[in-house]
Amino acid sequence: MRPQKLEVYNNFNDLRNDVQALAKTENTVIWDRGMGRRSIDTFSDEGLTNAGTIFDMPSKFMIKNRNLSPDHRYACQHILDLKMEDYLAQKKTVMFRDWNGITEGVCSSRYGIFDDYEVMDILETNPYFTNCGQIWGYETPDKFHARFISENTLNVPGDRSPLHMALFVTNSMTGGGAINIKFGVYRAACTNGMIWGLKEFSIVRQIHKSDTEFADILDANLQNVAMIEDTLTKRINGMIEEKSSIYDFKTEIAVDYLKSKLGIGGKFSEAIYQKYLEYGGQSKWDLTNAITDKAHDLDINSRLRLETLALKVA
After folding, report:
1. Is the CB of residue 62 less than 8 Å from the CB of residue 77?
2. Tens digits of per-residue pLDDT, 219-272?
3. Residue 1 pLDDT class (50, 70, 90 cuts)
4. Nearest 5 degrees, angle CA 201-CA 205-CA 208?
5. Which of 87, 133, 249, 252 has the highest local Cβ count within 10 Å?
6. What is the pTM of this model?
7. Beta strands of the chain (E only): which ranges?
8. CA distance 15 to 7
């Protein structure tokens, strides 16, 4: 697996090339009862988690114990065999999705999935994505995430670095969800990303829909980008004027508040609080930037979670 950090791409085609390279390592098999067992050694932790959901088995226990000893491995393999047999005995089939020979995805064979290269095909139909100013991306079988950053600068007087509207696109090829697109803000100086609940839409795989219809959904939701940029600017200016949720709190209470609301450890909460003071220690905007700034230190899933929570907590 590649490191769980965002990488910068020079253009849309560079991101596409990485997506296509990953696609070349993929193999999908529809499995039925007559095809036998699957070795637990071929499953990644993510694949075993997905299998646990489909087959109703204790995947966390199996992930923790399967490599402890031969006896532990045998017990975990036995659980997989029994649960898989029970599932397939109901005349069901299951889809195994492997990359480089490792099972990353386990889904119902009727589950509709977009591969990441299909996501790129859909995005390519809209000039916002192909002509954007900058792209940050991360792609593994279970998580595709890309940030398409507008060249237009949001007019926020007094802020110390350029701010841009960004579209945050996520997808999963292992059954983790449909294409999801959210609007947000990108701070150029420190590459902070802030995901806003202002506008969000999903594109769900449906057999009866064509690629053209998927592109139409994209176009319909991006018709008023200029208006959205204006709304984001007004929201940011409002946050600069409004005191943060922890403005009147003593340090210890503020740190505990952040720990509780963000679901993070005490030391990380203290680090966010110190960063909040560095940003000014007063406004909602100061606290939002502190949270998203420190989110850089986390893996991609944790980073996205904090970037989504930042505005609500601030």
Report:
1. no
2. 777 777 778 888 888 888 888 899 999 999 999 999 999 999 999 999 999 999
3. very low
4. 120
5. 87
6. 0.85
7. 7-9, 26-31, 94-99, 102-108, 134-140, 143-154, 163-171, 179-187, 192-203
8. 10
